[in-house]
Amino acid sequence: MKKISKICCIGAGYVGGPTMAVIAAKCPDITVTVVDINEQRIAAWNTEKLDQLPIYEPGLAEIVGEARGKNLFFSTDIERAIDEAQLIFISVNTPTKTYGIGKGMAANIRYIESCTRTIARVAKDDKIVVEKSTVPVRTAATVKAILEHTGNQVKFNVLSNPEFLAEGTAVRDLLNADRVLIGGDSDPDGQAAIAALVDVYAHWLPRERILTTNVWSSELSKLAANAFLAQRVSSINAMSELCEATNADVREVARAIGMDSRIGAKFLQASVGFGGSCFQKDILNLVYIARHYGLREVADYWEQVIRINAHQRERFAKRMVTSLFNNVSDKKIAFLGWAFKKDTNDTRESSAIYVADFLIRERAQIHVYDPKVSLDQMRQDLRELGSRPADVNDQHLFASSDPYEVLNGAHAIAVMTEWDEFKTLDWPRIHKDMEKPPFVFDGRNVLERRELEAIGFQYSGIGA
Ligand code: NAD
Ligand code: UGA
Questions:
Q1: Of ligand 1's atoms, which has the minimum distance to the CA of residue 114?
Q2: How far is the centre of ligand 2, averaged over its atoms, from the C-alpha of 163 (Å)?
Q3: Which of 182, 241, 276, 371 has its CA 20 to 30 A from that of 353?
Q4: Could you read off the pLDDT of 290-330 as tens digits, one per residue?
């Protein structure tokens, strides 16, 4: 297998953009072209103003600024980029299916299939095709079946190379990955393809962190990793409700159990529920696959992780209503944060959407401050949930780029995202300008309870 000098990545999203930027920055001998059908997104990746890239990630603008135009390119000319590349990453979205068989559970691989067909049609010489997207286990068989029936004598090698970056820390995660996982066939061609991709990552990662497996283990490991991570959040969230019933404090419980090195301290932060584009989608997909194989107990076990998450969101919203004297109708409720976690502009599956939806049902007026999310995006998120006509939502949802404007005159504050800047707001001023008694519902357990109570807030966190 020749050394890789030209890479194409199909899909310029949260994974494709940052991952390719880091590959380009670390591999000056490789030309990386990221392509997408979304012209607006590509235009935004090519924008002069680096603070207006389509994705906000700490450190990303600097890396893109360094490599773009040298060995990193963003383009809508998908066919040309495929034709020129020796190695093609497929990094398109694989959302939960919204129709037909597997509706609401299975991953929709229509975008994987469509770009695989484009590769099959366009390729004139041998290619390594890499699944970067998170896919149902055994998707590589589908990809191979499509590629191998082109009749144009091109030899394709299909690898699985799932991505483990988390949003908000994508650049750091990519530069210093715990591991890179590459699954491929055991025949000599498969092993050569694996070796070629290992060489790309070995430009900056120690080889012992680059794991190679068979294709199916690699595909399944990605779903398994997300299921295990989400399970920890649901486990601590389930404990948080028990803490509230028993006067235990979930932060103390998390610390006590996390110091057991077998359990570990990470991912034990109780919250209003996990969001993001992947945890729910990937677990639903895992559950669907388990059911497909007739493994009912396995499916039920993992499904419970999702149920606890939905329950956590709902009980948070219900607690707000009951605390506010069972009435939020026409009350101004301030949301601090809308993104699903700090340091990202991504709002997919954010708990804020579900809590806002619940409160709008109770006719509250929601006013949001998020440093990276626009009102248009918030309104679109609610529209997609489809609970009521968009114009009704719009009459109940407002936003401002000034947190004090959002908080002024509010009956309650819901902390939905753990943005660092919330800790240093002028809390005495906020207290003065709110309706009394002023409530803070800290869905992220990030504010100082004692300080807020000393100022006069009615504070309630998660699990204490
Ligand atoms: P995204 O929606 O941000 O980006 C996907 C891009 O693919 C979109 O811009 C879309 O226009 C493009 N696309 C779709 N079909 C196309 C086609 N036929 N040709 C060209 N472009 C096409 O999605 P994402 O968050 O980057 O996720 C991509 C995949 O990576 C998913 O499978 C996801 O599960 C997985 N993943 C995501 C994360 C994350 O943090 N977001 C982390 C690990 C893995
Ligand atoms: C997650 C995984 O962490 C990544 O490894 C994976 O690649 C990615 O999914 C994916 O496949 O998309 P991400 O969703 O970007 O990454 O962010 P996380 O840091 O995992 O947070 C997910 C959600 O869980 C957030 O809403 C976060 O606030 C919440 N969370 C996380 C908690 O409520 N408590 C915790 O202790 C940790």
A1: 18
A2: 13
A3: 241
A4: 999 999 999 999 999 999 999 999 999 999 999 999 999 99
